[in-house]
Design brief:
With 563 residues, this protein is an alpha/beta fold. The protein is 35% helix and 18% strand. Strands 1, 2, 3, 4, 5, 6, 14, 15, 16, 17, 18 and 19 form a 12-stranded mixed sheet that branches.
């Protein structure tokens, strides 16, 4: 691992030096006893269904959603802010539970690094959570690939369902960035090796099985949803579902432990449920509904996050997860940085250290639109959290506060990366002040709107698009789905995270553009329709210099280089 100055420690070093409490002690702060836990060592545990059933009569706590502006390479710190805010609320005497997604190995070994927060605001044990954790991702991958294997076995064993090998849509999954697996040919090598066909892989967070895990209400519901998965179509155009292959029971068996939320803690001992892990650019980007509901029964205040910006994770959290789960956030925290806003204003990454008020003003259009989405489109109270960097100047901070105030918002500095919960108390007080504020929460679209209308309303009301164009194939699929149960389903738009548009190069708040939908996929098990915009892919690739090249073991067998 490269050496660092003595005054600067890596996130891994900070996490490793922390004194964690046994997880049974963390559980007791929530009114849980050791017998309520399925222990995974001293610092991790799962909460079984019996505990969730006992908690059911308890009233729900307040739900705080953390989102952000459109991400840039300059960094925003949404997960760090979520964790630090939870610690700060706990310091102020609130019974707080944090609810997060599990990290994927793909980004951890690719370009993003770890996903457990940063600095003094982290969930722990950091190495475990970022790597294999309690095996949930492996269970999802196994259940996904069991179904894939049963599809190809059905073809090989006579194909009594008449499944068209050219129209199989269900993909295999792997929790690693591997562009070589986006498009593959299966069954080569002769008759004994199966039926040759074209296929592909998605990364595990983009798997429909992951979406099912995150939206299921219990194990029975998960089993039924697995059975609803459309694996492809017959030669006479009839959809074939996983239950017709008798796969859903075995899939549920593989997922029977993965469905239970994982209890861990922050470096300051605040309880955290870390469970599920869909990406917000290619899936719905929220932790499991089960974990969020459990957290709401355990805590007076629950702090959760949704992936990427308010246009992606937050929109899907509100329009999909809240609709399915009957949830209503009390307040939204919108994370921003001056560095990122200057990049949205046209400043190159290498020039971010220089003060640039005109670029900040231009880039703030991105913040303005996200703030508009939260407060005007969804009707929710919002606090803007500024995650400061050492190069931010007093003039830039004052200018950003003026911009936010001019928009009718409130900006608070959050210094949780450097100071942990103590650096988030001002933000926590601002959140508490808004918890009792009246909300006029509303969805962007109604369930009985046509699917195309749902997509258009997200594109125009949330993204700021002029309109939507549909490829001929997408239009045909929309027409076909209009006659199915998915006509009333929510929609999940897969697009780049780096712009409101489909084009990652259109920064800020672009106008006058149209959203091109190239493909429509029924995600019947999860219960939504996936609309794929632009060139977004469900299997990422590794960068020129993957993070894996810096991850290693030292002489004592300890992990090095993990963020």
């Amino acid at each position: 691992m490269p050496s660092t100055p003595s005054t600067i420690r890596s996130d891994l070093e900070i996490a490793r030096d922390a004194s964690l409490r046994p997880i049974v002690e963390i559980a007791r702060t929530l009114g849980l006893e050791p017998d309520d836990l399925d222990l995974y060592g001293r610092f991790k545990a799962k909460l079984p269904g019996t505990v969730r059933e006992r908690l059911h009569p308890r009233p729900d706590g307040k739900l705080v959603l953390v989102t952000a502006i459109s991400p840039t390479p300059a960094g925003e710190g949404k997960t760090t802010t979520t964790i630090g805010l939870g610690d700060a609320l706990a310091r102020l005497g609130q019974r707080t539970v944090i609810a997060l997604r599990e990290p994927s190995l793909g980004p951890a070994f690719g370009v993003k690094g770890g996903a457990t927060g940063g600095g003094q605001a982290q969930v722990a044990p950091m190495e475990d959570i970022n790597l294999h954790f309690t095996g949930d991702f492996h269970a999802v991958t196994a259940a996904n690939n069991l179904l894939a294997a049963m599809i190809d076995n059905h073809l090989h064993q006579g194909n009594v369902l008449g499944l068209d090998p050219r129209r199989i849509t269900f993909q295999r999954a792997l929790d690693m960035n591997d562009r070589a697996l986006r498009n593959v040919v299966l069954g080569l090598g002769g008759k004994a090796q199966g039926v040759p066909r074209e296929a592909g892989f998605c990364i595990t967070p983009a798997s429909e099985v992951m979406a099912i895990l995150c939206l299921a209400s219990d194990l029975h519901d998960l089993r039924e949803r697995c059975g609803n998965i459309i694996v492809g179509h017959t030669f006479d155009d009839r959809p074939v579902r996983a239950r017709e292959l008798d796969a859903h029971g075995a899939m549920a068996v593989l997922l029977r432990e993965a469905i239970h939320p994982n209890l861990v803690q922050t470096l300051e001992g605040t309880p955290a449920l870390v469970h599920g892990g869909p990406f917000a650019n290619i899936a719905h980007g929220c932790n499991t509904l089960i974990a969020t509901r459990t957290a709401l029964k355990l805590g007076d205040v629950v702090v959760t996050e949704a992936g990427f910006g308010a246009d992606l994770g937050a929109e899907k959290f509100l329009d999909i997860k809240c609709r399915v789960g009957g949830l209503t956030p009390s307040v939204v925290v919108l994370v921003t940085t001056i560095r990122s806003l200057k990049m949205h204003g046209g400043v190159a990454r290498g020039d971010l250290a220089a003060e640039n008020l005109p670029a900040l003003e231009r880039g703030a259009d991105n913040l303005r639109r996200h703030l508009h989405v939260v407060t005007e489109v969804f009707g929710l109270p919002c606090v803007v959290a500024l995650n400061p960097f050492p190069g931010d100047t007093p003039a830039e901070i004052a200018a950003l506060e003026t911009i936010v105030t001019r928009e009718g918002g409130q900006m608070v500095r959050s210094e949780v990366h450097a100071r942990g919960g103590a650096g988030g108390e001002e933000l926590a007080r601002a959140v508490l002040a808004k918890l009792e504020s009246p909300t006029s929460f509303r969805f962007v679209y109604e369930t009985d709107d046509p699917l195309a209308t749902k997509i258009e309303r997200i594109a125009t009301r949330v993204y700021g698009a002029r309109g939507v164009t549909f490829s001929p194939a997408a239009s045909r699929e929309l027409a076909r789905l209009a006659a199915t149960e998915l006509a009333s389903a929510p929609v999940c738009i897969a697009k780049t995270a780096y712009s409101f548009s489909h084009d990652p190069g259109l920064l800020g708040a672009p106008t006058g553009w149209e959203l091109p939908i190239r493909e429509i996929r029924p995600v019947a098990g999860a219960g939504f329709v996936l609309a794929i915009a632009g060139d977004i892919m469900t299997m990422p690739g590794l960068p020129a210099r993957p993070a894996a090249g810096s991850i290693d073991l030292d002489a004592d067998g300890l992990v090095t280089g993990l963020f």
